Structure formats: C-alpha cells, structure tokens
Amino acid sequence: MFFFTLIACSALATTGLASYALEDDYMAAGFFDQFYFPNGSDPTHGFVDYKNYEDCRDARLISNTSDNVIMRVDSTNKITGKDVRGRPSVRIESYKRYNHALIVLDLDHMPGGICGTWPAFWTLGPAWPSHGEMDIMEGVHEQPGNKMTLHSGPLCTNLTNTGGTGKVTLTECLSGDGTPNSGCQIATNDSITYGAGFNANKGGVYATEWLADSISMWFFPRGHCPTDALGDCPDPSSWGPPLARFMTGDECDINAAFRDQQIIFDTTFCGDWAGQPTIWGNATECAKKADTCEAFVRDNPEAFEEAYWSVNALKVYTDGDKKSDAPANPGPAAQSTNTVYQPAPPTGAPKAQGGGSSTGTNGAASFAKREDEQREYARHLGAHKRRGGLKL
C-alpha cells in the first residue's frame, strides 16, 4: 500500500500538485510504542513529577484507542512533603528522529489556558542548542494565543523577514550559555490557537513544514482544515500563508542549524518560565489565587481536570522521492487554492523576561534501550534551561 501511495505522490509532484508521502502514522502503529517516557528531573526545573510508562498507565494518566490518545496530569491529589518533585505528569519523546519533514498534528484538546501549566508540543535535536529546537505549540498560564519559537546554536542567529501572518516578537534564535535563551519567536493573540479558546472550538490542526531553507507552521481550526492536510499526499503550497515562517537569511542557515529532531509532548508546571515571579504576577487572575505558582499547583488538584492532551492524529510526511534525511529544495510558493483560516497577529509585542530555553519518553518496548537513551539525553539536557517568560 505504501509503495503505491509513494508512486502516486511522486506522480503528483511532477505536475506540481504535491511532493509528500506518508512516512509515519503514529496512531496506526501503536502510539505509545513509538515513544519513551523519561522520568527524571525536569530539565526546565518545573514543579512536576514525570512518570514512566507503567506508572502513567497504572495512574490512568494515559489512554489510547485506535483513533484517540489521551495524556493528562494528576488532578486528584494535593502534593505534600518536602522531597516530592511535583505534580505527576507525562512527557513523551519519539524514538525516531527526522531531517526535513512535514509534521501534522490533529488535537481536539490541549492542557493550556490553566494557571500553573506550561504545556508544549515541539521537536528537539540530540545536542542542544547546536542541533536546534522547534516549539510548535507552547504557552503558560492563561496565555491567550500560541507562541512558536526556534532555538539554535551560532549557525542561526537573527530572524529575518518571515512571510507568515503572525507577529515577530523575538528575533534572536541563538540560545545557550551567555544568551537570554528566549529564542526567535512568532506569536498570535488569537485565542482560538491555544488554551481555553482552542479547546472551546474543539481544537484544530497544526502542520509544520521543515525544509532546507525554511520552517513554516500553519494552524487550521476545527472545520477549516484543508482536505489534503492529513491525506496521503498533502500539498502545503496550496494552504495559503502560514501562521509562522522562519527563513534562512544572512545570519541564519536553517539547513545547518536544525537536524535529527525528535517529537515531544509534555506538560510541566511553573519552572524556568511559568514559575518566574514576574510571570506569575503578570498573569493577574492566576496571581489572585495563590502567592506563587508552586503553591497553586501544589494545593489545587481540581484546577487541572482539563489539563490533558487529546490527540486525534499525528502524521509525519517526507518527500515522496526521498527519505526523511534527504534535503528538500522548495520552489516558489504557489497561489492558494484552499480557503484557510488566518489567525490575527498580536496587537503588541510581549517583552522577554530573561530566563532559559524551551525543551521540550514508551511503553513496553526495550527498557534497557530506554534507560540508555535517558542517560544520553540527560547528558545533553542536564544544563538545558527553558526560555524566559513573555509578559502576558
């Protein structure tokens, strides 16, 4: 079946209609078997206790059917004691890594828009920041819209003209020691893209196209998704302008700065971004509920009943004639043939508040492999701090 689909997509590419073929359908192959669950300390210093696969399963923090996956946080227990790491939660990291791909995620619910939370859907290279990081969906507290961010080493610094509909709010992609670690960011204040507004609209689809000279991110709310976005041969050139587009320029080489990306979901609390006193204080409604982020997360389990991911689809496409490690050569964008939703950009640029970077693992498969990989990633991520907050 895959062979015939690949031929069909390649044939379409010769007509200029499409160039992608499905490489991985995470829902069709046993979702959690394709991820591992790190259960060490949070590299972003969150008030969170990430659980391994068995503990997540037994505590009913995860569940899945053939067409839906749920990942939630503990919403039952107050967190007591001095030596606890924080509220139980889930972080998963794909075993597989990609180079140049189209990643399409269909969600009907996400854990954002809740005081204390810091959820993210993102990708990460094996050595941070030199192999790069792409934050596709991320925010803190009751943030009204999505923030899309890149972190990189010295091969990609200042963000140039993007061609997307979102607003550039941070321009320095360079992260790591001696930098603010805020990354370069494109944002929107459209509430339908994140958190409570996203959930009220029954979610939507995020699509990220990673090419040799650009990284583009589209958002399609429920009912406005192009028919091909989750099909056999998606064609992003027909989708209209993305919400965010990060381009290669004089000071940024996308192809050199981003490689070997794995897919990650996590929900942490407080930490290097959401836990900053200024960020908590600026989230006015949250600050009314407790003096600190950690105090709120510790004492209010019922506040997190809606802090869960509900995944309908996760698909990764690669060039129909190449594998995911082959370079892509995009041509000029075609005129849009689909009517697509375009979220409004924010009216003002949030201010960076300093801080760290955004970072951001399976089930029954190979515990030895998982432990080896956890040690490897711990070595890379141990000093990795997530980005500093943005004034909400």
UniProtKB/TrEMBL annotation:
<comment type="similarity">
    <text>Belongs to the glycosyl hydrolase 16 family.</text>
</comment>
<dbReference type="InterPro" id="IPR050546">
    <property type="entry name" value="Glycosyl_Hydrlase_16"/>
</dbReference>
<dbReference type="GO" id="GO:0009251">
    <property type="term" value="P:glucan catabolic process"/>
</dbReference>
<dbReference type="InterPro" id="IPR013320">
    <property type="entry name" value="ConA-like_dom_sf"/>
</dbReference>
<keyword id="KW-0326">Glycosidase</keyword>
<feature type="domain" description="GH16">
    <location>
        <begin position="13"/>
        <end position="282"/>
    </location>
</feature>
<dbReference type="Pfam" id="PF26113">
    <property type="entry name" value="GH16_XgeA"/>
</dbReference>
<dbReference type="InterPro" id="IPR000757">
    <property type="entry name" value="Beta-glucanase-like"/>
</dbReference>
<feature type="compositionally biased region" description="Basic and acidic residues">
    <location>
        <begin position="368"/>
        <end position="379"/>
    </location>
</feature>
<keyword id="KW-0378">Hydrolase</keyword>
<protein>
    <recommendedName>
        <fullName>endo-1,3(4)-beta-glucanase</fullName>
        <ecNumber>3.2.1.6</ecNumber>
    </recommendedName>
</protein>
<feature type="compositionally biased region" description="Basic residues">
    <location>
        <begin position="381"/>
        <end position="392"/>
    </location>
</feature>
<feature type="region of interest" description="Disordered">
    <location>
        <begin position="322"/>
        <end position="392"/>
    </location>
</feature>
<feature type="signal peptide">
    <location>
        <begin position="1"/>
        <end position="18"/>
    </location>
</feature>
<dbReference type="GO" id="GO:0052861">
    <property type="term" value="F:endo-1,3(4)-beta-glucanase activity"/>
</dbReference>
<keyword id="KW-0732">Signal</keyword>
